[in-house]
Amino acid sequence: MIKEEKEYPKEFLEYVQSITNKRAKIVIDHILKHGFITTGDLENTYGYNHPPRAARDVREAGIPLETFKVKSKEGKSIAAYKFGDLLQLQTERVTGRISFSKKFKKQLYKIHKGHCNICNGQFEERYLQIDHRVPYEVIGDLTDRKPEHFMLLCGSCNSAKSWSCEHCNNWKETKKPEICTTCYWGSPEHYTHIALKEMRRLDLQWSGNEVKYYDAIKIIADKNNVELPDFVKKIIAEKAS
Question: Considering the entire predicted model, what is its pTM?
Answer without folding.
Answer: 0.62
